[in-house]
Amino acid sequence: MTVHASLEQLSSYLDAELARRERAELEGHLSGCPTCRRRLDGLRGVVARLERLEQQAPPRDLAVLVERRVAVETGRPRLGTRLEETVKTFLVQPSLTPIFGLVVALALILYLFSFGVARQQERGTRLVVPAPAPESVVVRTIEGREFALSGEIWIERGLEKVASFETLDLSAAETLPDELEPFAQLGGRVILTHEGRPVMAVFP
Q1: What is the rounded CA–CA span in Å between residue 28 and residue 21?
Q2: CA 181/CA 173 separation, integer angstroms
Q3: Cβ atoms within 10 A of the Cβ of 40, count?
Q4: Hey, where are the domains in the chain?
Q5: 182 within 8 A of 156, measured Cβ to Cβ
């Protein structure tokens, strides 16, 4: 093996998924390559932390709660029917007729006022509304790739709408993978393309 081992090969090695010949070849490479040994140790640390994570189970009564909600929603009339009944009730009550008339009059006054403002603007008097200040966006370029700061996360251009990605927790790694080391200067969490897929790297 003349080049560094990929993360996929190292992961398969940790999971004992490599064939005997590939495993022997990788072990021979690891014995003479400190970079790949560091990467393997980092992966071991990530796997150990993931195994310590507590798995959350859904509440025991979730099924009962869902069944009750479905029963309630099934028994309710549709929204259109409820609105129609509300309007009929509103128009039938004689005590609400004056209130309805006031609402119509208020709407008419607002319409005439807006019409007057529009006519005033046509005559040359302009209403000055200050434009909102544009948000300042912090952008850094590393290795020819642009990263924009969103909250506390740096996001590589083009990955703003990615919904799911793998997390690489490198915050406790003694050494970083060579291809990710330049981006460690951003610090914290960085969403970037790594080995052809979007990942969130957590740097120290």
Answers
A1: 11
A2: 12
A3: 20
A4: 7-52, 57-92, 94-123, 139-202
A5: no
Q: Which residue type, as a one-letter code, is found at position 173?
A: A
- Name 176's Cβ contacts closer than 8 Å, sequence gap at least 6: 42, 170, 184, 203
Cα angle for residues 35, 189, 175 (degrees, 5° grid): 15
Q: Among candidates 97, 120, 116, 119, which has minimal Cα distance to 108? A: 116
Type of residue found at 55: Q
pLDDT tens for the chain, 204 residues: list them: 557 888 888 888 888 888 899 999 989 988 989 998 999 898 888 888 877 776 666 667 777 777 777 766 666 556 667 667 766 665 555 555 667 677 778 887 887 777 665 665 555 444 343 444 445 678 889 888 999 988 888 999 888 888 777 888 888 888 888 888 888 888 889 998 888 889 988 987
Calpha distance 175→53 (Å, rounded)? 23
* CA 64 to each of CA 60, 67, 70, 71: distance values in angstroms, whole numbers, following the listed order: 9, 5, 10, 11
Placement of tokens 């970037």 in the chain:
192
Backbone angles phi, psi at 131, to 5 degrees: -75, 140
